[in-house]
Design goal:
246 residues; alpha/beta; Rossmann fold; 7-stranded parallel β-sheet; 7 strands; globular
Amino acid sequence: MKSTNNKILIIGGSAGIGFEIAKLFSTENKVIITGRNERRLKEAAAKLKDVTAIASDVSCGQEVDELVKHLYAKHPDLNIVVNNAGKAFVYNVTGDGVDGFSKATEEIQTNFLSIIRLNEKLLPLLRRQPEAAIVNVTSIVAIAPSVRLPTYAASKAALHSYTLSLRYLLAETSVKVFELMPPLVDTEFSAGVNGHKGIKPVIVAEALLEGLEADNVEIRVCQTEEFYRFYLSSPDQAFAAFNNRQ
């Protein structure tokens, strides 16, 4: 997959991993970033080179329809979509009064269902291109869940499963399907789970660039690769080790 001269849509591009992907790729590609917070989005775009910012909440059907209509009309050469939207709650799923159902509803909507909806609406446009890609950003917790993020982990596991199916079904088309699977990353998003101990988001962006160029469709970043191999050899031990150190 070529990593230059693309038109790239980055969902959740105003901060963290999404911002670093936009920053890295905007030097040799045309980049569009979206986010819920218009102020933060404009501030992010001002720090980047020739980036288009479109305020849009991917979890809202009406706003997605407006975004898609705009993309078809103004960006018919769009050929890469990076699905980086995220919502997470840290809580004990067995605790009293935690309202896990409401938390899970938000997480599943943002992290999973909204991605299915957007991909479905943009696939006809992507399939017109001679070379295209969908990048779904999952997480190390898609391999084995963190009990501190029980329903977030479940949403990322669902996205991983969906990504496998999507890749298989699009194998004979011009659209490649990548999964970007980072470990703990030092961002504002991960502050509640000791994110300061994680890798820098630019490392994730660099891994995506290398993965696209190498056609490595499952990009397990840094510790995720080691943990993945550990999990394959001993799932119970990997799960226990992963949760005991949190």
